Amino acid sequence: MLSFYNSKISVAGTDEAGRGCLAGPVTAAAVILPPHFQNQTLNDSKVLSLETRNFLRGCIEGEAICYGVAHVFMEEIDALNILNASILAMHRAIEKLQQAPQHIIVDGNRFKPFGEIPHECIIKGDAKFLSIAAASILAKTYRDEYMEKIHNEFPMYNWKRNKGYPTREHRAAIREFGATRYHRKSFKLLPEQLTIDF
User: Fold this and answer.
1) What is the pLDDT, as a whole number, of residue 43?
2) Which of 7, 40, 57, 168 lies at a C-alpha separation of 20 to 30 Å from 156?
3) Binding residue per annotation — 197?
4) Domain spans, the chain
5) 11-145 has which CATH code?
6) Does residue 16 sit in helix, strand or coil?
7) Vertex 125: Cα angle to 123 and 131 (nearest 5)
8) For the RNase H type-2 domain, which residue ranges apply (predicted)?
9) Residue 126 marked ligand-binding
10) Does the pLDDT of residue 120 top 60, yes or no?
11) Cα 53 vs. chain centroid, distance in angstroms?
């Protein structure tokens, strides 16, 4: 069962989604939960079904003290690199919080200080602490919603299903149709072909 990091202070959990995708933004969320918050279903978004994630999104948005969600789009990803873009997305999500947290907990092992607020990076934090799990749900559902929207513009890539991840189907579509304005130009969109010199 997930727990609170510290129920005596205001703690924001933050996480991102879409870091390994070939197309679309990297999306981050930050969430401050009330000390009485409980939910037996809440977990790392990656282990939950679509229906459960969408249900939990409503619970989180309805019960959180505050939350923020931010996209960092392809141009900034290409300019900054994906790690820096992911951290920027988390910073922007924290900036949207209506209440400044006293502490920040981050899923993963890399972060940059956000003002003077102390932070801690926690490996697999989305499977350990409620506020990070909540942030993972919001980041995932908001990003998926965005990918489903742009799917209608370029249905041949089937972003509605693969969400921009490097599936075989997605790479086959890139090979056939080329890259779109939603693709990350700094990523290796197609694996390098092996050649044999005779």
Assistant:
1) 86
2) 57
3) no
4) 11-145
5) 3.30.420.10
6) strand
7) 155
8) 9-198
9) no
10) yes
11) 13
